[in-house]
Amino acid sequence: MILDIDIIRSFYKSLPGRIDEIRKLLGHPLTLTEKILFTHIVNRSGISGLRRKENYADFLPDRIAMQDATAQMALLQFMVTGKEQSSVPASVHCDHLITGKFGADEDLKSALEMNREVYEFLSSVCGKYNIDFWNPGAGIIHQVVLENYAFPGGLMIGTDSHTPTAGGLGMLAPGVGGADAVDVMTGMGWELKLPEIIGVRLKGRLNGWTSAKDIILKLIGMFTVKGGTGSVIEYFGDGAESLSCTGKATICNMGAETGATCSVFGFDASMSEYLVSTARGEVAELAFRNKDSLTGDPEVYADPEKYFDHLYEIDLSSLEPYINGPFTPDRAIPISRMKEEVLKSGCPLKISAGLIGSCTNSSYEDISRASSVIENALSQKLSLKSEFIVIPGSERIRTISEEAGFMEIFRKAGAKLFANACGPCIGQWDRGSIDDMKVNTIIHSFNRNFAKRADGNPDTYAFVASPEIVAALSVAGNLLFNPLTDLLFNSERDIVKLPEPSGRALPQEGLKPTLSGYQQPPADRTNIDIKISPDSERLQLLEPFKDYDELDFQNMPVLIKVKGKCTTDHISMAGIWLKYRGHLENISENYMTGAFNSFNGKINSVLNVLSGNYEPVPKVARTYRNNGLSSVVVGEDNFGEGSSREHAAMEPRFFGVRAIIVKSFARIHETNLKKQGVLTLTFINNSDYYKIREDDWIDINGLEQLSPGRKLKLTLNHSDETVEYIEAGHSYNENQISWFKAGSALNLIRKSK
Ligand code: MIC
Ligand code: SF4
Fold first, then answer.
1. Closest CA to 467 of 449, 446, 452
2. How far is CA 690 from CA 487, 546, 562, 608, in A?
3. Distance, CA 132 to ligand 1 centroid (Å)?
4. What is the DSSP string of 24-73?
5. How far apart are CA 147 and CA 593, in angstroms?
6. DSSP β-bridge partners for residue 488
């Protein structure tokens, strides 16, 4: 069975005609990004008036994907709209709530037990609203989407920031917050500011120890964690065509780490092979017949400076493996420079654990190359010096890797095999023996390495590398080991060198057409009952937020002025808190508990201006709210980078934080805040950040006249009775202002029902 085949057939049927129309309207050759965006725009006739990075437009995605940790809140919001079913095909994937500890079978069993209530809720909501449901164990959302739903030329949104993985199969697939998904499920368009398009030409061919992962690790170093903000990254060139489809997916997955809206590759033979291998031969054929519509026009790639807003080039032939970290994925270190760079970071050189897999790097190619490293090590009488954990991205990958003997090699070397789920990538890692606070170093092939991310320990230094490099370094047990040049002593005290890894993009016999864990919505959905117990700790029905009142923006204390990096992991931590993703009140108890207070340099300790004491952030937030006070949060650059989780935006709203003023926002988080009715402001002068004092009372005036492009004045009432005025900008358009005035975007949908 090919999922969505009817939609895909009709999509391709009308594609060439639509692209000709767009080319005529714009009057120039088209990038692939333009082709995909404009074939999905609501108002096609208006496209010639749209300016990149300036104008918003509405789009109609072909599909929506949600994972369990974000789907709970998205679906709770959807339920409030009173619609009968999702207007657009959608799926939910149970992958985030499985803790890795003993190994796949046992861990899955205890997850089923622990999360029964949430899984039952999700499965019944999916049944009721006609949404595909993927059971725990089926795999990680982005791998399952790649294997079953993604198709070249399509547009998809997903409530997870790594949704762009589908760009490896030629799909434009931005990550969004749950409220955006709710809009689309209710039949509205999906709003996006027209992105810039960054062209990346790949030339040459990968060789030796280098893999697709290294392309993106290098690129994140070049772009930094905010360099891609507001842009789509479009790859092209002979180097792009030489990569496997899953290699391309790894690159698109981690494009999220540059802040990019998404990334995409044009259709080519590697995508065809992947489609055939995943039993979607008909899609491959249809795409092949439409191949000109599924890549940028030849004139664009012949003269890219003219059509892309920015252009970069990477030569794959001379690229070396990269290791990025610690604590941020954009600290990119070519392996030849590790020795000097790492010594500066002061982290332990001994690697306590190496982990491979996740939604980023668990393709057949990844697993086969990593297992070749381990196999070569074993045959040279070397052994693993670090704990080694393998996390397959899907049941399909797990089965084929088992059949190909890769898993046996890992087991023989003493590795642990975890369930097909996010696990340690999102803090669902029970390390047991490791003392909580112990300073240690880990290396993994995931995409993020923010502090505390994998195991909740702030003293775990995490580095990101390709699966083959992770495998080699886990054999050496040492961060300074460079398998390209260094030798190792084996158990017989002989000096040996690890040979280069080898592997295949896809198994000869294909990836097996299994839909294990898939649950189609029933034909008769009328009698499905959705139960939420009022005493539940995990699920809570949502109460609408109250609508706009000018008085709420007067006399606001500063809840926290955050210093430095503030990712969504700092705002609303994952790990143990994932269990409250369906319960706004309970999860709000983690609000900002990972962020640094700029006034005392401490985590989770802020001044309560009412009591004069330093207290945990959620406690102070609750006190302000209970005393009828709104409050303000202040931050620095790229505020809210990282994940799409809208809890990071709902929690402040729940606590009465009415405005967040920062130097700059990350895209998804800014939209999430706007949707929940929190006022998102940016300093006109970044140095005004320093004017805000710990015990200030802030007023924001003139909100009645809030309009696009119009600055706002803030009054800072200092405790020494002096007053300062600062200016703030915003990026609201008319439509978004109406969300703000309604109290939240959802309130507006409810009202228009
Ligand atoms: C992540 O990688 O941080 C997550 C967990 O997948 C998030 C979504 C979430 O917080 O649920 C993401 O990347 O969007
Ligand atoms: Fe899951 Fe990690 Fe991928 Fe997020 S990045 S979807 S947590 S595997």
1. 446
2. 52, 32, 11, 20
3. 20
4. HHHTS---HHHHHHHHSBS-GGGGGG--TTT-EEEE--SEEEEEHHHHHH
5. 37
6. 496
How many angstroms separate the Cα of 604 from the Cα of each of 39, 508, 570, 633? Answer: 47, 53, 10, 14
The rounded distance, in Å, linking the Cα atoms of 117 and 580 is 12
Q: Contact at 8 Å (CB) between 172 and 36?
A: yes
Phi-psi region of 418 (alpha: psi -120 to 50; beta: other; left: phi over 0): beta
Mean pLDDT of 3-8: 95
Q: Please give the distance, rounded to the nearest whole angstrom, from the Cα atom of residue 181 to the centre of ligand 1.
A: 15
pLDDT at 677 exceeding the cut of 60: yes
- What is the pLDDT averaged over residues 723-734? 97
- Identify the burial level of 606 via C-beta atoms within 10 angstroms of its C-beta, where 0-12 means exposed, 13-18 middle and 19 or more buried: buried
- Closest ligand 2 atom to the C-alpha of 360? 3
Q: Is the predicted pLDDT of residue 435 greater than 80, yes or no?
A: no
How much is the pTM? Answer: 0.95
Averaged confidence pLDDT in the chain:
96
Span 11-28, average pLDDT: 97
DSSP classification of residue 429 = B
What per-residue confidence (pLDDT) applies to 78?
Answer: 96
Q: Which ligand is nearest to the CA of 70?
A: 1
How many residues are present in the chain? 753
Answer whether 69 contacts ligand 1 (Cβ < 6 A).
Answer: yes
Three-state secondary structure call for residue 377? helix
| Annotation marks residue 160 as catalytic | yes
pLDDT of residue 503: 96
Q: Where are the beta strands (DSSP E) in 299-457?
A: 310-315, 322-324, 332-334, 351-357, 387-391, 416-417, 440-444
pLDDT at 434: 60
pLDDT digits 0-9 by tens, 537-559: 999 999 999 999 999 999 999 99
- Summarised one tens digit per residue, pLDDT across range 96-119 is 999 999 999 999 999 999 999 999
H helical segments located in 561-695: 568-571, 584-587, 617-626, 647-654, 667-675
